[in-house]
Design goal:
alpha/beta, Rossmann fold
Length: about 220
């Protein structure tokens, strides 16, 4: 179960996952991935819950399909996802929340390829971050710590001084492995996620306070 209290400390930066955390792209992603899964004889209903929070190539490799090139398949899926942005929307309250953050103090750390991330951020009407870590920027994707560690490095802050906003267990495990605290965003969840971190439905009742020393504090309205 999620803890019920806000993280009780200040942070140098906030790091955000993208899909399911600052925007919802479930409908678009599942349209594209559903067609791919059906074309490869997979059980679509069983497969679709596995696509979230991981890099496309890692999801494909996990299927252990014979006679396919995971990188080539990933490129085709990404191209289809860039074309299909219908139904992508910002999570409630996130636009104002991001706008309240100082520019050098936040980043998006996503398992999506950069071109797809840019397309979805634009479709959701959200601002581009000062730092965007995408799938191709790391050798190991989530749940390895590498993406969040790179985000902290690019912002020039210590990993332990970052707060992560995530929606998947893979992402939460990545943040934990990086030595970072987390908040889980649950608006897109269809089933409870067993985790010990603070949970919020969306950003409607959250605000970020910038302290005189430049640190950030998470608060509720």
């Amino acid at each position: 179960m999620s803890q019920t209290t806000l993280p009780a400390r200040d942070y140098a930066a906030f790091l955000f996952d993208m899909d399911g955390t600052i925007l919802t792209s479930i409908k678009a992603a599942e349209r594209v991935w559903g067609r791919w899964a059906a074309g490869h004889g997979l059980d679509v209903a069983a497969f679709l819950p596995t696509i979230h929070g991981k890099r496309t190539e890692d999801t494909i490799r996990a299927q252990a399909l014979t006679g396919i090139d995971p990188l080539a398949e990933a490129a085709r899926i990404t191209a289809a996802e860039i074309e299909d942005v219908e139904g992508i929307e910002a999570i409630a309250g996130v636009a104002a929340f991001l706008a309240s953050l100082p520019a050098p103090r936040w980043a998006i750390v996503t398992s999506a390829p950069r071109k797809l991330a840019l397309a979805r951020i634009a479709a959701a009407g959200l601002p581009l971050p000062p730092v965007l870590v995408a799938a191709e920027d790391v050798q190991r994707g989530k749940p390895a710590p590498d993406p969040f560690l790179l985000g902290a490095e690019k912002l020039g802050v210590a990993a332990g001084d970052c707060l992560v906003f995530e929606d998947t267990l893979a992402g939460l495990h990545s943040a934990e492995a990086a030595g970072m605290d987390s908040v889980v965003v649950t608006v897109t969840h269809t089933h409870p996620v067993e985790t010990g971190v603070f949970g919020v439905v969306d950003y409607a009742e959250l605000r970020a306070l910038t302290l005189p020393n430049g640190m950030l504090r998470l608060a509720q309205q």
